[in-house]
Amino acid sequence: MRPLRVVLTGATGFIGSAVLRELAAHRTGEDAGPGERLVVRAVGRRRPEGAGPADEWVRADIARPRTLRGVCEGADVLLHMAAVISPDESECAAVNVEGTAALMREAARDGVSRVVHLSTAAVYGPGPHRGIGVNEVVPAPVSPASRTRLAGETHALAAGATVLRPGLVLGRGDRWVVPLLAQCLRAVPALWDGGRGRVSAVAVDDLARLVARLALAPGRADGLGGVRHASHPRPVRVGDLLRTLARYDVLPAVTAELPWRECLERLRATRIPVSERQFALVATDHWYRSDEIWRVAGYSPEPSPLAWVEDAAPWYRSVVGAGVGG
């Protein structure tokens, strides 16, 4: 039986490494069919280490399209998890736009039959957003990373990709979301707007399982292709997120409640390197209907979007340094 060949970019990153682990687990898990063989080709500037085995490694730099020539040769599936998040527009564009376009050309040239492309719900821009479906509001990205990722989606969609837009991705390896929450709490030690805001979030392991299910679905599964929200189906109350992180000594416990206007005033007074837009993204309503993609993949994530916290707490304590005395 011919093996299924999967090309994976971003295999050394936060989300891509989780996908690589999930693909490796598939080989020996109950989902693996009799005699089924999966060959994973990791594409990147360095070989993945400690993230699960890749059968093949191709040295290439997505920011240098000429190095991508032939990376999809013989492949059945392309999982494009690589992206750049930077304040430098040209740096983001080199990978998120030009690199994505070149990679999709390679996939088309080599007849890759399935593409899954990772984007972000941040392409919608400033909220509040409350339970919107895909493109029920016009995307209005603010940051260079979000603008270029939205532009990169165009090339992926032209290649027939399933484009995933997760919200806040959380778990071991996260160096952005919970560290940002920690910064915001140091500046404004309170439940922001009473902690009533709701946000879309997803555990990185659940997201990785979703990507793997989409990659390995037999035939041409119904519902693949197009843009899909990829957060946990249940949004998270910001207050519940903060209280859960405090329970595991990741963040200091707070009980005071402040109205949103006063929260912004205090943020401005502290002069920390966090924009009002970034603060609002983790503190106010930014949630997106995400049920459909889980049904398509035939996979249900953990019942609670906060089930990941206990496992990830040691990682987060080491990163944010909030475990001693709050």
Any overview of this molecule?
- The protein has 326 residues and is an alpha/beta fold.
- It contains ten helices and 15 strands.
- It has helices at residues 14-28, 89-109, 144-158, 177-187, 204-216, 238-247, 260-270, 276-283, 291-297, 309-320; strands at residues 4-9, 38-44, 56-59, 77-80, 114-118, 129-132, 162-165, 168-170, 191-192, 198-199, 201-203, 226-229, 236-237, 257-258, 286-288.
- A seven-stranded parallel beta sheet has the order 3-2-1-4-5-7-12, sandwiched between helices.
- Strand 4, helix 2 and strand 5 form a beta-alpha-beta unit.
- Helix 2 runs parallel beside helix 3 (144-158).
- The longest helix has 21 residues, at 89-109.
- 47% of the residues are buried.
Short structural summary:
With 326 residues, the chain is α/β, with parallel strands linked by helices.
